[in-house]
């Protein structure tokens, strides 16, 4: 008896030793992933994106970069990096392999250096738009030849002392240029195909805060001289611009007074059309806000990018995170964060994407991080796309898989609930919609369910009441008699 | 005192003139009925918070705090009764504290019923049908109307003077809230001061 026990014990010990020798693989993230619930409280979520590649200038073979300010992924998959501090452009392929270094370009037969390029855009036909901020011009470069420039606009709209300092540029699907000029509060400068100035486009509005109201009140009392001495109230200028394949212009804003509408989707009239359910302005970034003494650290967005599927990526400088939302303003995922490890950033300044890959440029780390969706992230993307395309049952299956990986995903509950409602399974739909916090859809399902109840049992209810009434009157009569 | 014949709260809500006269001048108010109504008011507020249909209910159900809920009911009620009593003294009203308290409780009956009914009815309504809110508003309006009439009768005011008295009552409520907050912050400062001194002394001694 003791012998067999000893044998068993040794067997177990052997097993324990052997299993402990098998290396276990951990996919530990260097950043926290989360999503927000109905009450705007953060809930843990699996990572939607994982870093697959990080390279700095040394590793690419160009020597160290100096404060790169922008980069752009062109249509054919070339990544143009503006190495601003070194006065050059660097062209990389999708895997961050070096293709070309552009240090000088030919302009009117002269070689000129690419000084102070702060913004980049590459049109579909391969023309590089490089914003030389301090030289007040945008160079149109093709094959190292300057084929044109965008200069200070000439128009009666532009005051004499207007200083043109282009920082970012976007070219929309029709070839019009939208230029962001430093210190220009009137919105984006819109240029036509031939480079002529068309006008201002989509200015931010002044946010109505207590300060603004107070100063309006004072200004209505004071004299003209006193009024001139006061600081004028200006809307916040944009921090970046991107033109989507859908023809809309996307803008981001740094340092809003209120955490609302930091990312805008401007229609051809220059009006923001990017709202949450119920046409409400919403906070693109973190809901849970930290405080510096009593000043709230609101999210501030430095760059925005919209991919071909309509997902919007924006970099929040406050938390150094990239927020991903869909066209209905649903939070898809959050990735990155402040830190020194792979997958975290120091000062992220630009985000680009190609296919499902996301590229983030860090100005202080002088490197580019490439992210790819994880299994979970890819599932969420597919589910959103399937739902948007109207494939509700397919979307339901995908959302169920998402739910297995993240029970906190209100998006998944909402997707399943809406799919069930499409199939007229209102009872179940209501449970899911309630978990997702979507009162409007819940109410619709509830109404349909109620209608069904009335149709099925309404007649019986009325009949029952009638029978009861007749019975009562008979009882009354018999008692009287 | 004629203790056998209490005014029925359900009669009060239909006949505010008679009822408040009876409560004030014939001592027909009952403390126990008043307390029952107050408890029901508290229950109604809890029921309305927790059981209003999900469509209209923006409260986080799991974040329920009984003490805060109790405070939310008892504080406005208490402040109103005390303020009105104070204004009664200042403006030569004839109502006693007991009469104001009991009559105000009686007046809450429509509001309590409206709140309960609103919560129940809301469970059969969709977002486009705000009838539950109408019920609650109707109950509140009824309560306020009979309260106004009753105070006029028991203080022996005219209409205008009663309006003035009610406005003053609301102002007094605000002043009382301010005083409570002031007292609270002073008390906490004082407690902090005493604790610091005690700690200091203890450090020196040991």
Counted up, domains of chain B total: 1
Count of individual beta strands of chain A: 29
Binned strand content of chain B? under 5%
Total domains of chain A? 2
Portion of residues in beta strands of chain A equals 25-35%
Q: Specify the CATH architecture of the largest domain in chain A.
A: 6 Propeller
End-to-end CA span of chain B: 65 Å
* Number of distinct beta strands of chain B: 0
Structural class of chain B: mainly alpha
Folded structure, characterized:
- The complex is a heterodimer of chains A (481) and B (206).
- Chain A is of the alpha+beta class and 481 residues long.
- Chain A has two domains: 34-373, TolB, C-terminal domain (Neuraminidase, 6 Propeller), CATH 2.120.10; 402-480, no CATH class.
- In chain A, 28% of the residues lie in helices and 30% in strands.
- Chain A has a four-stranded antiparallel sheet with strand order 3-29-28-27.
- The longest helix of chain A has 42 residues, at 439-480.
- Chain A is globular, with a radius of gyration of 30 Å.
- Chain B is mainly alpha-helical.
- Chain B has one domain (9-181).
- Chain B is 76% helix and 0% strand.
- Chain B has helices spanning 9-12, 16-25, 31-51, 66-90, 97-107, 109-122, 131-155, 159-205.
- Chain B is globular.
- The mean pLDDT of chain B is 92.
- The chains are: A alpha+beta (481), B mainly alpha (206).
- Chain A binds chain B through residues 39, 434, 439-440, 442-444, 446-447, 450, and chain B through 54-55, 60, 124, 126-128.
């Amino acid at each position: 008896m003791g012998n067999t026990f000893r044998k068993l014990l040794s067997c177990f010990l052997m097993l324990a030793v052997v299993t402990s020798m098998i290396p276990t693989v951990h996919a530990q993230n260097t950043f926290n992933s989360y999503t927000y619930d109905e009450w705007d409280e953060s809930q843990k979520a699996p990572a939607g994106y994982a870093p697959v590649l990080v390279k700095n200038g040394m590793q690419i073979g160009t020597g160290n970069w100096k404060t790169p300010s922008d980069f752009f992924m062109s249509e054919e998959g070339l990544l143009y990096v503006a190495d601003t501090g070194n006065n050059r452009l660097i062209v990389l392929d999708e895997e961050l392999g070096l293709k070309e270094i552009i240090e000088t370009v030919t302009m009117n037969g002269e070689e000129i250096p690419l000084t102070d390029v702060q913004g980049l855009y590459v049109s579909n036909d391969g023309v590089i738009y490089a914003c030389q901020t301090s030289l007040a011009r945008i160079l149109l470069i093709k094959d190292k030849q300057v084929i044109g420039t965008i200069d200070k606009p000439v128009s009666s709209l532009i005051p004499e002392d207007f200083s043109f300092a282009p920082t970012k540029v976007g070219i929309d699907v029709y070839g019009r240029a939208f230029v962001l000029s430093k210190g220009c509060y009137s919105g984006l400068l819109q240029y036509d195909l031939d480079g002529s100035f068309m006008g201002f486009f989509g200015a931010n509005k002044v946010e109505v805060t207590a300060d603004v109201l107070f100063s309006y009140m004072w200004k209505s009392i004071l004299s003209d001289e006193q009024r001139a001495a006061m600081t004028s109230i200006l809307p916040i200028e944009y921090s970046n611009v991107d033109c989507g394949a859908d023809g809309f212009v996307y803008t981001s804003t740094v340092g809003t007074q209120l955490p609302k509408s930091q990312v805008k989707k401007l229609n051809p009239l220059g009006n923001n059309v990017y709202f949450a359910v119920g046409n409400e302005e919403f906070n693109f970034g973190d809901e849970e806000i930290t405080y510096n003494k009593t000043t709230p650290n609101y999210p501030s967005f430095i760059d925005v990018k919209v991919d071909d599927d309509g997902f919007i990526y924006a970099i929040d400088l406050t938390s150094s995170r990239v927020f991903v939302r869909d066209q209905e303003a649903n939070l898809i995922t959050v990735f990155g964060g402040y830190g020194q490890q792979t997958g975290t950033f120091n000062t992220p300044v630009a985000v680009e994407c190609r296919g499902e890959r996301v590229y983030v440029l860090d100005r202080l780390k002088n490197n580019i991080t490439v992210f790819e969706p994880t299994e979970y992230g890819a599932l969420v993307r597919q589910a959103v796309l399937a739902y948007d395309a109207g494939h509700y049952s397919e979307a339901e299956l995908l959302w169920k898989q998402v739910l297995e990986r993240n029970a906190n995903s209100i998006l998944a509950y909402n997707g399943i609930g809406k799919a069930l409602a499409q199939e007229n399974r209102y009872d179940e739909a209501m449970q899911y919609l309630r978990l997702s916090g979507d009162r409007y859809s819940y109410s619709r399902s509830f109404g349909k369910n109620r209608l069904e109840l009335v149709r099925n049992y309404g007649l019986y209810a009325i009949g029952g009441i009638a029978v009861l009434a007749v019975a009562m009157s008979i009882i009354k009569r018999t008692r009287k008699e | 005192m004629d203790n056998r014949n209490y005014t029925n709260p359900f009669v009060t809500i239909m006949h505010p003139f008679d009822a408040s006269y009876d409560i004030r001048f014939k001592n027909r108010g009952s403390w126990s009925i008043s307390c029952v109504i107050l408890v029901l008011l508290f229950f109604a507020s809890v029921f309305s918070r927790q059981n209003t249909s999900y469509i209209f209910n923006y409260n986080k159900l799991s974040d329920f705090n009984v003490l805060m809920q109790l405070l939310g009911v008892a504080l406005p009620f208490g402040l109103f009764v005390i303020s009105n009593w104070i204004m009664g003294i200042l403006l030569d009203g004839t109502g006693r504290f007991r009469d104001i308290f009991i009559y105000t409780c009686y007046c809450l009956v429509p509001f309590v019923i409206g709140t309960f009914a609103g919560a129940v009815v809301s469970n059969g309504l969709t977002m486009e049908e705000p009838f539950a809110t109408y019920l609650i508003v109707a109950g509140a309006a009824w309560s306020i109307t009979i309260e106004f009439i009753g105070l006029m009768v028991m203080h022996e005011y005219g209409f205008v003077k009663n309006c003035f008295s009610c406005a003053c009552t609301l102002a007094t409520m605000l002043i009382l809230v301010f005083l409570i907050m002031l007292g609270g912050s002073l008390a906490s400062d004082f407690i902090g001061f005493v604790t610091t001194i005690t700690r200091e002394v203890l450090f020196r001694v040991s």
